[in-house]
Design goal:
Length: about 300
């Protein structure tokens, strides 16, 4: 539709667990509550996805490409989004994240100033016990976040907003596993797009849950698919976090993030990537700043050379 601003993409978990089902219902309902400027596309063929999405009158697109373990690929998700939507902005959001109206305000504010950017930010963690549907219920929930929720460390990100012209070609990352989100931040810095930390202006709520839906109940960053994501992204030197955002959205303005010693050292570390576009130098600097990992990589390379001999 002509007045749609952003298309939100997500690939939810199966709806066979009552708690996960409620969490995902809350998340999807909060996106719908943002109004007609938001389009939502749900992808994937897991149990209960089609039926539950239909109840909410949300667009469901089956047939997303998956890896050998059945995990949807973000490259396929973006291909589908560009085919099925025409909004100027795209957003990848985890299906356990509740959004509020400041999400839209931030996109509009940034979009009037920048043609290429990545908007990311920290989340708040809180256990939500009730099924929520209406704007009034979400407004009441937002009022309690600052007093009842916990701000997650800046190492992880759960939403990514960018113009549809960005990220035209990406590796076949598995969603829901670590590594791809870090690469998105790396890619933005590598291409010299502005990475904007929206933590101060964009309130997002992650609903607490366990990880029994994952193999062995392990947290996603311990899974082999995570290691594969990191390898697809180029290696550990492409693991970027919110620390690597150059800008922040604060007091309704886009401003430079303040410099401190750790930030300055990090900017020196990633300079070969962000300024000179050199993967080789980027890896070298990474190992210089992380000598233990450099030594481990050297030993591993030496070992593989001996095996070949």
């Amino acid at each position: 539709m002509a007045n749609e601003l952003v298309t939100i993409l997500t690939a939810p978990k199966p709806f066979n667990d009552p708690n996960i089902s409620m969490i995902q219902h809350n998340a999807l309902s909060s996106w719908l509550a943002l109004g007609e400027e938001v389009a939502v596309i749900v992808l994937g063929d897991d149990e209960g996805v089609a039926e539950n999405v239909k109840k909410l009158s949300i667009k469901h697109v089956p047939g997303v490409r998956c890896n050998e373990k059945g995990t949807p690929l973000i490259s396929s998700m973006l291909e589908i989004a560009r085919r099925e939507s025409s909004t100027p902005y795209l957003a990848i959001v985890n299906a356990d994240i509740i959004l509020f109206d400041d999400f839209l305000h931030a996109i509009k504010r940034i979009g009037t100033q920048l043609d290429q950017f990545l908007l990311v930010g920290q989340r708040w963690n809180m256990q939500v016990m009730d099924k929520l549907t209406t704007v009034k219920e979400f407004s009441a929930l937002k009022k309690n976040i600052r007093s009842n929720a916990r701000l997650h460390p800046p190492a992880g990100s759960d939403y990514f907003v960018f113009p549809r012209t960005c990220y035209q070609s990406i590796p076949d990352f598995a969603i829901g596993r670590a590594g791809w989100d870090n690469w998105f931040i790396f890619k933005s810095r590598f291409e010299r797009w502005k990475v904007i930390d929206g933590t101060h202006q964009v309130t997002i709520l992650h609903q607490d849950h366990d990880y029994h839906h994952l193999p062995g109940g392990q947290i996603h960053y311990r899974l082999p698919e995570t290691r594969h994501n990191v390898a697809l992204g180029g290696g550990e030197h492409t693991i970027f976090t919110l620390l690597d955002a150059q800008y922040q959205l604060k007091d309704t303005r886009i401003t430079r993030k303040p410099l401190f010693l750790r930030k300055i050292l990090r900017e020196i570390e990633i300079m070969p990537l962000t300024m000179f576009h050199s993967q080789l130098l980027g890896k070298l600097f990474y190992y210089l700043f992380h000598p233990k990992k450099g030594y481990a990589a050297f030993r591993a390379a030496l070992g593989s050379t001996k095996v070949e001999e």
